[in-house]
């Protein structure tokens, strides 16, 4: 729909009392002026909780300056704002959105994805006092501007921050910049191209979840925060993992180059590990037994050598499917020459 020339027809607020919870615009053409008109809808949707803009175009520079009589100062009950793939032809001239600061003070969840965001002004971040969830995936954020966005007093209630697929280069600088976010627990910085990981880093004190998947890292070091309960390092270049993480409950390390299972003593409370598509050739009863609390292990699509040791172990463990949810279809023999492609469960070695 083209709402570039949209003008709102005034109605008495008593005439309309919509039960609408969500309002979504898809493939809509907007302007600065029509945005002001759309805000007037808020007077008639007192139950609105979520506003969404997908694949829309804004022909403007963010100069939202309604007249004093028409001004809407807050979004009512709206808690969630989602913007995906917003096209702004003049985005390099875009204003700092000062005119909507007050509108967003009570919003709890904001997603602005794939919309060429390169900066959230410090003053704007400080005004987002209720924000708990912020997703800035697939944008143009770099450390220099992230430092301005996460300035002192910014996003004081923020718990989850997603910066996947931006232009971050340094894990160390990223962690240091985010120290201002005292309540941050979940951080997703996947699909950035990081330089080698340093030996030590500083992180927000309450960090529990960290996603470093698809970042090109070759090794994990003490830079990883010890407070983590969930760590995702999938789709990297890791050939070993020997880091002690005392609180870790879930480890996602699929699509790497590990040849053996990590030592279970490094993870005293680990419940879930997914280590699919690595270079594992076998695992044994002793290796599995080194994980004191492991409940779920996904280790399929590896290069299993169907030796007597592996086959005797799997044959002697009829309850393997309770621990291995992808058993038996994802466990295929890679060798010896007589058995490639056979399921480990059904392989039978020769007498020799």
Automatic annotation (TrEMBL):
SUPFAM superfamilies from the UniProt entry: L domain-like
Topological relation to the membrane, as annotated: Single-pass membrane protein
Organism: Myodes glareolus
Molecular function terms, GO-annotated: signaling receptor activity; triacyl lipopeptide binding
PROSITE patterns: LRR
Pfam families named in the record: LRR_6, LRR_8
Location(s), subcellular: Membrane
GO (cellular component) term, any one: plasma membrane
Lineage: Eukaryota, Metazoa, Chordata, Craniata, Vertebrata
BP terms from Gene Ontology: inflammatory response; toll-like receptor signaling pathway
Keyword field: Glycoprotein, Leucine-rich repeat, Membrane, Receptor, Repeat, Signal, Transmembrane, Transmembrane helix
Protein origin, superkingdom: Eukaryota
Protein known as: Toll-like receptor 2
Keyword hit for Transmembrane: yes
């Amino acid at each position: 729909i083209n709402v570039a020339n949209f003008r709102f027809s005034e109605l008495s607020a008593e005439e309309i009392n919509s039960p609408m919870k969500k309002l979504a615009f898809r493939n809509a053409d907007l302007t600065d002026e029509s945005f002001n008109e759309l805000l007037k809808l808020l007077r008639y949707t007192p139950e609105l909780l979520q506003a969404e803009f997908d694949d829309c175009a804004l022909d403007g520079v963010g100069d939202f300056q309604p007249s004093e009589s028409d001004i809407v100062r807050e979004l009512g009950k709206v808690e969630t704002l989602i913007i995906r793939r917003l096209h702004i032809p003049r985005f390099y001239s875009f204003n700092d959105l000062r005119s909507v600061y007050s509108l967003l003070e009570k919003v709890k969840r904001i997603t602005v994805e794939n919309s060429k965001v390169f900066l959230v002004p410090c003053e704007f971040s400080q005004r987002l006092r209720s924000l708990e969830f912020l997703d800035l995936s697939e944008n143009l954020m770099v450390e220099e501007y992230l430092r301005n966005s996460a300035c002192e007093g910014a996003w004081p209630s923020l718990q989850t921050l997603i910066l996947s697929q931006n232009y971050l280069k340094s894990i160390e600088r990223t962690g240091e910049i985010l120290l201002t976010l005292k309540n941050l627990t979940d951080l997703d910085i996947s699909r950035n191209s990081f330089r080698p990981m340093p030996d030590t880093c500083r992180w927000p004190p309450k960090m529990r979840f960290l996603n470093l998947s698809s970042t090109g890292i070759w090794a994990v070091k003490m830079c990883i925060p010890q407070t983590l309960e969930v760590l995702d390092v999938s789709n990297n270049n890791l050939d070993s993992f020997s880091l002690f993480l005392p609180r870790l409950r879930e480890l996602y390390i699929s699509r790497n180059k590990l040849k053996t299972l990590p030592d279970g003593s490094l993870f005293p409370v680990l419940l879930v590990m997914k280590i699919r598509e690595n270079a594992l050739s076998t695992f044994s009863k002793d290796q599995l037994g080194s994980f004191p609390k492991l409940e779920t292990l996904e280790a399929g699509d590896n290069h299993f050598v169907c030796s007597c040791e592996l086959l005797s172990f799997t044959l002697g463990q009829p309850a393997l499917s309770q621990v291995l949810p992808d058993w038996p279809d994802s466990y295929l023999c890679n060798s010896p020459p007589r058995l490639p492609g056979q399921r480990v469960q059904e392989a039978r070695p020769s007498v020799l």
